[in-house]
Design brief:
The structure is a single chain. The chain contains 15 helices and 22 strands. It is α/β, with parallel strands linked by helices and about 475 residues long. It has a six-stranded parallel β-sheet, with helices on both faces. Strands 14-13-12-15-16-17 form a six-stranded parallel β-sheet, with helices on both faces. A five-stranded antiparallel β-sheet has the order 7-8-11-9-10, covered by helices on one side. The longest helix is centred in the N-terminal third of the chain and has 14 residues.
Length: about 475
């Protein structure tokens, strides 16, 4: 991306399906010059009604259409066509690169493409990144089943620092306590429990907390801590990690199949998929032999779930194609005593609703994908970007450039954007929580939590 402050990044999105439309809206809000190509007029009309973008109706693999879209001068080409066969994404991305686009990325639907030797082939051809939203989502679900005490989690530098998210229930020991009081009490309880509360999600609003901010019921706390301090934080908050040995999956979707395959490799006591389509059940039985239980039936029917032994399962993963069914199934599962519930929710307006209804963790394919792609619109010093469910903010990890603005003074003196906060720092083999007197050094890896209107300003501090 150009260093000129007044230059808008030119981005072309091929495909106006769910993922493409979400990216178009998000990137247009970030100040990008967005053009969307699709051969489906209805999809483009829906997008035009909700986003400030230029749309082009035409074949996304047509050189004429790609030239009309401006590939010769584009900074980024994102191929996310929702067609049944996604080879069109690879073809259009490669053509865009040949026509002059600086960086191109493509959505795929074949896990084999992600093998290291195959990724190298695509890299040599000119593709800068391949991504498989369903695979990313299934990996997230597996991770959520490992970290069962939190509603979400994220590792930095292979877990040296961890971001964990906790919901405050009505019996939480820290209700009405203020941030400073909690940090002081936590530090007194354990010398290892260095932490920083980087955000609070409350009634649909994301708050960057101050020392005197009080905690209230149903708050979601975003806490960054050293790995060795997390157990002490769990104990203090009265949270326990649940050992997950039996998992029921509602929905034999692509995501459901991949989650089941990973769980079977872990040799759990029981993995069961329930799907309403008899033919899909037969396919799953054939493809995932080796311990998988498959049942044909309607996951929305609580009597059927009881018959299938839902009370005996540690976790329920709801990944049907229906958000409402996924949420309600998780609510029902909690009433039957299932300890851990995870729901796939694609409607962004339902995310907080699901959490408020007691769903333990929510997965959203669009948000996960958006974070991976948004990285390409920032400086080359950002290692990754992730959107955390339940909040408007983004979590970023930067590698600090020599002479970067962030290195010029202690954090308290550098006028860092108000709606962003530095949570932790990895320096060589050491990791620590950032405070006002912390001075960032070149090549540090820094974890940042920022609201959307601040991200571009934050980016300037690390170049």
């Amino acid at each position: 991306m150009s260093d000129k402050k007044d230059r808008r990044m030119k981005i072309i999105i091929e495909g106006a399906g769910q993922v493409g439309s979400h990216l178009a809206k998000m990137l247009s809000h970030e100040g990008g010059d967005i053009t969307v190509i699709d051969d489906n007029e209805a999809r483009l009309q829906r997008l035009n009604a909700t986003a400030d973008v230029v749309t082009i109706l035409g074949d996304p693999s047509s050189i004429k259409v790609l030239r009309e879209a401006g590939c010769a001068k584009a900074d980024l080409f994102i191929a996310v066509n929702p067609a049944t066969t996604q080879t069109v994404n690879i073809v259009s991305a490669l053509l865009a690169k040949r026509l002059g686009t600086k960086r191109v990325i493509a959505r795929i639907d074949d896990e084999a493409y992600l093998l290291p030797e195959n990724k190298l082939i695509f890299k040599d051809m000119g593709l800068d990144m391949l991504f498989y939203p369903e695979k990313i989502a299934s990996d997230e679900i597996i991770d959520l089943l490992k970290h069962t005490a939190s509603t979400d989690s994220m590792d930095f530098a292979r877990g040296k620092l961890q971001l964990v998210v906790f919901r405050l229930d009505d019996d939480s020991p820290i209700l009405d306590m203020k941030v400073a009081e909690f940090v002081t009490a936590m530090t007194a309880a354990s010398s290892e429990a260095q932490l920083r509360i980087i955000a609070i999600s409350r009634k649909g609003e994301t708050i960057i907390p101050k020392f005197d901010t009080p905690f209230v019921y149903n708050d979601h706390l975003y806490i960054i801590a050293k790995r060795e301090g997390v157990p002490a934080i769990l104990k203090f908050l009265g949270k326990d990690n649940i050992e997950v040995n039996k998992v029921m999956i509602l929905g034999g979707s692509e995501i459901g199949e991949m989650v089941a395959a990973q769980l079977l490799r872990q040799q759990l006591d029981a993995v069961k998929i329930i799907d309403i389509d008899k033919q899909r059940c037969r396919e799953l039985t054939e493809k995932l032999a080796g311990g998988l239980l498959v049942a044909n039936g309607d996951a929305r029917n609580s009597d059927f779930l009881v018959e299938e032994g839902i009370r005996d399962y540690d976790a329920l993963v709801a990944v049907t194609g229906n958000d409402e069914a996924n949420i309600l199934s998780c609510v029902v599962a909690k009433k039957f005593g299932v300890s851990r519930t995870v729901a796939q929710v694609e409607n962004l307006e339902y995310l907080r609703l699901a959490e408020d209804m007691g769903v333990d963790a929510v997965i959203n394919k669009k948000l996960i994908t958006a974070g991976r792609i948004f990285k390409f619109t920032l400086s080359d010093k950002v290692r990754f970007v992730r959107y955390m469910s339940g909040t408007d903010a983004e979590v970023l990890e930067y590698t600090v450039a020599p002479h970067a603005r962030i290195t010029r003074a202690p954090l308290k003196d550098i006028d860092f954007p108000r709606n962003a906060i530095i949570g932790g720092v990895i320096r060589g083999s050491d990791s620590f929580i950032a405070v006002g007197d912390t001075r960032i050094e070149p090549y540090d890896r820094v974890a940042v939590f920022a609201l959307p209107d601040t991200v571009k300003e934050v980016d300037k501090f690390f170049k």
